[in-house]
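In the lab's daily routine, each protein ends up as an entry in a very long ledger. A line of letters takes care of the sequence, but it says nothing directly about the fold. The fold becomes a row of whole numbers, each drawn from a learned catalogue of backbone shapes. The protein below has been through that process, and both of its lines are reproduced in full:
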Amino acid sequence: MKLLQKISPQSIICLLTIFIMLLMSQTTFYFLTLNTFLAYVPIELSFQIQRTNRPLVQKILAAFWLLFFPNIPYLASDIIHADMLTIYSYSGSVPSVRLWGLLIILFLVVFAYIIWGFTQLLALVTALQIKYRLKSWLSWGILLGICFLSSMGIYAGRFPPRLHSVYFLTDPWQVVDIIFLQWSVKKLELVILFWFLHLGILFVLYIHERLRQEAIK
């Protein structure tokens, strides 16, 4: 524990990301190699935003952070790939330790990056509120707006034509058309559902913070 205390959380998250990418690259969950990296990018950007004092650099980093942030809650949708593993055997044989290990890693990756990513989201909104002396309702509006945009990003990444964040750089007009202009009832329903996922995560973090504060008293 003393060794970990000497290493910054930013460095620990970076090292864990590299480890996960190397570990999962040759497994059934090889997709976690890319998805974990894409989830790490906004977390690293959030650290850099809070570190720099140059307004223009902050704005540029914030734009890229907003672009990549949906990759964090997107990880929650990766649980659908758990069915790729034959976990249960109804023949009474001993279950595969390796497959259960992969399932546990999937859970830990989703859990960890969502907690880290949303903690940084709250930190950025709080810093924005303090810097510009925003009223509480406006800060909440920004937070909920970011969550809604992120929900639209999850939909665009999970369902056809399945866009990646980098497409904003290679073909921005097509991405804008698909995400913001092409709508259907089913898309609206799913975007709202993903938005409630964001709200649920924020609520869990709120309860966690309340419990932590009460434990300190």
Q: What stands out?
A: The two ends are 24 Å apart (CA to CA).
